[in-house]
Amino acid sequence: MAVKQKWAVLAFQAFPRLRKRGGNWTSEEMDRLDALVAEFTAASEHVCERCGAAGTLRETRRIELTLCDACESLVGTDGRLR
C-alpha cells in the first residue's frame, strides 16, 4: 500500500489483500477499490492538504499544492511552512 501526494492530489495504491503469484483477488474487488480511490482522489483536489478546509490548486511554486487561502500565506515558495 502507498499513500502520497502527487500532482497536488491524493495518490493511493492498494490491493484487497496481499498479492500472490497468479493473482488472488476478483475483478469485482479491484473495481470496488478503484472506485473508492477515484472518489477520494477527486475529493482531494478541493481540500487543503495542510488543514483540511476547502482549497484550490496553487501553481505558484516549484511544487503544486492544494491549499486554502489561509494556508497559502503560510507556505513559502519552496513548499515549506514559514
Q: Any descriptors?
A:
elongated; two-stranded antiparallel ribbon; 82 residues; alpha+beta
Percent helix range: 25-40%
Spatial arrangement of strands, main beta sheet: 1-2
- The total of beta strands comes to 4
> Mean pLDDT score, rounded?
80
C-alpha Rg, in Å?
Answer: 16 Å
Q: What letter string, H or E per element, gives the SSE order?
A: EEHEEH
Count of helical stretches: 2
Strand content: 15-25%
Main beta-sheet annotation: 2 strands, antiparallel
The secondary-structure class comes to alpha+beta
Distance between the termini: 31 Å
Q: Report the uncertain regions.
A: none
- Shape from CA axes? elongated
Topology:
Blueprint: E1 2-6, E2 9-13, H1 27-44, E3 56-58, E4 65-67, H2 69-72
Antiparallel strand pairs: 1-2, 3-4
What does this structure look like?
By secondary structure, this protein is α+β, with helices and mostly antiparallel strands. The protein has a domain at 46-82. Helix content is 27%, strand content 20%. The protein has two helices and four strands, in the order ββαββα. It has helices at residues 27-44, 69-72; strands at 2-6, 9-13, 56-58, 65-67. It has a two-stranded antiparallel ribbon. A hairpin with a 2-residue loop joins strand 1 and strand 2 (9-13).
